[in-house]
Amino acid sequence: LFDVFFSGVQHVWGIEIFTKSEVEAVNGTSVKLTCTFSSTEPVSLQTASVIWDFRSITADIYERILYYQEVPYPIEEGLFNGHVQWSGDIKRKDASITLNNVRPAFNGTYFCQVTNPPDVHANIGETVLRVVDKVTLSEISLLGAIVGGSCVVILVFLGVFVAVRMYKKRNKEKDIEMRVEEYRNKQSNLYLYTFDLD
Question: Which stretches are transmembrane (predicted)?
Answer without folding.
Answer: 140-164
